[in-house]
Amino acid sequence: MLKHIITPVQSWLLAHHQCVGCGRPLGLARTDQKGGKTRVFCACGRIFIKEKNTYRRALFEEI
Ligand SMILES: [Zn+2]
């Protein structure tokens, strides 16, 4: 299963700053800094990277 493929629905959710898994607003999620990047930890366990004012899924090496 190609879990790392971003579907159009996931892209839409991220564009609206919502988790691709559970739809929670990422603006409410816990964050921390690592290597100059802002990691966003959704309550469902998914991890994202916040870049400027956008979000994307964290790469394996960023987790
Ligand atoms: Zn989530």
Whole-number radius of gyration?
A: 11 Å
Give the cofactors and ligands: zinc ion
Tell me what portion of residues adopts beta-strand conformation. 25-35%
Q: How far apart lie the N and C ends?
A: 20 Å
**SS-based class:** alpha+beta
The helix fraction, in percent, is: 10-25%
**Which strand order spans the largest sheet, edge to edge or round the barrel?**
1-2-3-4
SS element count, helices:
1
Q: Can you tell me the overall shape?
A: globular
Would you give an account of this structure?
There is one protein chain. This protein has 63 residues and is α+β, with helices and mostly antiparallel strands. It has a domain at 28-63. It contains one helix and four strands; from the N terminus they run H-E-E-E-E. The protein has one helix at 8-15, and strands spanning 30-34, 37-41, 47-51, 54-57. The protein has a four-stranded antiparallel β-sheet with strand order 1-2-3-4, with no helix packed on it. A hairpin with a 5-residue loop joins strand 2 (37-41) and strand 3. It is globular, with a radius of gyration of 11 Å. It binds zinc ion. Zinc ion (ZN) binds next to loops.
